[in-house]
Amino acid sequence: MSASAGPAVRPRQPASSAALHATLVFFGECWLLAAGAIAAVVRGRVRWRDTLAQMSAIGVGSLPIVLAITFSTGAVFAYYTTAVFVRFGAVNYAGGTLAYGFLNELGPVLAGVAVASRSGAAIAAEIGTMVVTEQVDALRAMAVSPLRYLVAPRLLALVIMMPLVGVFADAAGVYGAYLMSGAHGVPHQAFVESVRTLVDETHLIRGLIKTVWFGFTIAIVACREGLATRGGAAGVGRATTSSVVLCVVLIFVSDFFLAQILSGGSVGQR
Amino acid sequence: MSVVQVRGLGVEIGGRQILRDVDLQIEPGEILCIMGMSGSGKTTLLKCLSGLRKPTRGRILIGGEDIVPLSEEQLDRIRPRIGLVFQYAALFDSLTVRDNVAFGLEHHGQRTRAEIDRIVRERLADVGMEGTEHLYPSELSGGMQKRVGLARALATEPAILLYDEPTSGLDPVIARTIDDLIRQTRDRRGVTSVVVSHDVPSVFRIADRIAMIHGGTIIAHGTPDQVRASDNPHVREFIGLDLAP
User: Fold this and answer.
1) pLDDT 10s digits, B65-114
2) Do B79 and A135 touch (CB under 8 A)?
3) pLDDT tens sequence across A38-70
4) B chain contacts of residue A134, beta-carbon cutoff 8 Å
5) B50 touches chain A (CB under 8 A)
6) Nearest Cα residue to A143 out of B69, B81, B161
7) What value, to the nearest 5°, has the Cα angle with vertex B82 and ends B17 and B204?
């Protein structure tokens, strides 16, 4: 049979092989973006004006959503658990248990998910639009690195702002739990004493370390998805969706490992 | 000596040959128009010349230096010598006209704000857009955006200007204004210009030389008169010589 007849047909990759290839490409590109952006920050080649604008957009923009989500979750969490504490006569442990869970886990993770949904999506959409309207090409044509101009300020802003957002998330969540517990039979004094007994600054710091990692993840994934945008408005939509989905998945998966690493096997101990 | 030399250029994307065996020489201060149908590879060639796309094979010599093997950081050394005017202007939509034109100056060099403001005013005046510094791109028409795009490209005083479809989507009057601007820019500044277009009247109005690209390769090359006299059927069809009256 003649091999020269007709156009060359490329062998199709099996689905599993294509998925593995796409995954490796994704992490490879994220690694290159992160390395380039960190190098730009270390060399002091990031404009503070751009970084401050991003910090404002991320911090101020995300805060109302984060406060609403964490306050509600804290209150609902307390609503279900307080009944159990009252039933077993353990009201003196309610406040500490709720605050322990919030500072270590719920506050950072909920803040991460809220920022990924709000700021991560905005970053992917903005950069994606810049790609399809050739604004990123215009940057490169003017010898301005998109890594330095777009990625590094967003990375820096998210890494700086996420712990601050995390503190507000913790405070709102614990306050929601405090109010709801009080309404369901846990004396306010007992709640506060319990928090003082079971929780200290190491739990807060542990949670804030998580938020730094989540901020880093959101910045790199959102910028990568934005820069990889292809195909006009529909492509921007796809980039925005995939940015949120990937960020949320990576936040939960990395949280599993961070919990093990940061607690060092001493869960429940002060 | 040629400002730009392209030798044996080939580009393959996703197994499809976009450009093959492209050879070009661009002389100092001339306007070379590259014309061809949509999808013929014109814009890909322009992106290769500006270093935005790596060709699969071949060489591109800018001022005698081959830019194909250069890294992104090494290309940044060459890029200030090349200005690129995008098809849809590609102005930064979050910045004002002033900040768009000043962008390259603010990111490179040590000019004071007063100097940059003066250059911005001069470049906007060159393209007939004075007094628009405070406007955002969304407040400008397509033709005005293209003029600001040209002002932005001119701000850093490049030796070579690349235009991607400068008249596409514009009415004939505005298109003629843009053509005049391209010629004036060359006449005033001696800038070597490469214009990619499928607008035949515009090409014949401004070109010193024309290269016709078809199926990813150059099928005719010469002065407007030489191209007009070509007996290549694709060239004759494209420039309308074989159309019934």
Assistant:
1) 999 999 988 999 899 899 999 999 999 999 999 999 999 999 887 789 99
2) no
3) 999 999 888 888 899 999 988 888 999 999 999
4) 86-88, 90
5) yes
6) B81
7) 70
d(Cα A132, Cα A99) in Å, to the nearest integer? 46
* pLDDT tens, residue by residue, B202-235: 999 999 999 999 989 999 999 999 999 998 999 9
The pLDDT assigned to B244 comes to: 41
User: Are B52 and A135 inside 8 Å of each other by CB?
Assistant: no
Partner A, chain B 6-45, Cβ-Cβ below 8 Å: 15
d(CA A125, CA A122): 5
A138 and B79 within 8 Å at the Cβ level: the answer is no
Query: Which of A10, A134, A145 shows the shortest C-beta gap to B90?
Result: A134
Interface of B with A in 216-235 (CB under 8 A): none
Question: Which residues in chain A have their CB less than 8 angstroms from residue B108's CB?
Answer: 143
Instruction: Nearest by CB to A144, from B73, B93, B107: name it.
Output: B107
3-state helix, strand, coil in chain B (%, to 5): 40, 25, 35
Residue with tokens 């290269």: B211
Q: Testing the interface with B: which of A134, A145, A227 to mutate, by most B Cβ within 10 A? A: A134
CA atoms of B221 and B211, how far apart (whole Å) = 4
Residue A11's pLDDT band (cuts 50, 70, 90): low
pLDDT digits (tens, 9 = 90+) for B144-203: 999 999 999 989 889 999 999 988 878 888 888 889 989 998 998 899 999 999 899 999
Question: Tens of pLDDT along B12-34?
Answer: 988 889 999 999 999 999 999 99
- Domain ranges within chain A, ordered by starting residue: 70-262
- Cβ-based burial of B7 (10 A; exposed 0-12, middle 13-18, buried ≥19): middle
Angle at B40 between CA B34 and CA B43, to 5 degrees: 60
Q: Which chain B residues are closer than 8 Å to A8 by Cβ?
A: 15
Nearest CA in chain A to B88: A133
**Residues near A149 by beta carbon (within 8 Å), at least 6 away in sequence:** A47, A50, A139, B107
CA A232 remoteness from chain centre: 26
Task: Identify all chain A residues contacting B75, using CB atoms and an 8 Å cutoff.
Answer: 143
Dihedral (CA of B212, B215, B218, B219) sign: negative
Nearest to B90 by CA among A139, A210, A38: A139
Interface test with B, best of A13, A130, A142 (most B CBs within 10 A): A142
Extract the tokens encoding B159.
């030796």
Which residue of chain A comes nearest to B92, CA vs CA?
A135
Give me B166's structure tokens.
Answer: 């400068």
Residues 62-91 of B with CB under 8 A from A: 72-73, 75-77, 79-80, 82-84, 86-88, 90-91
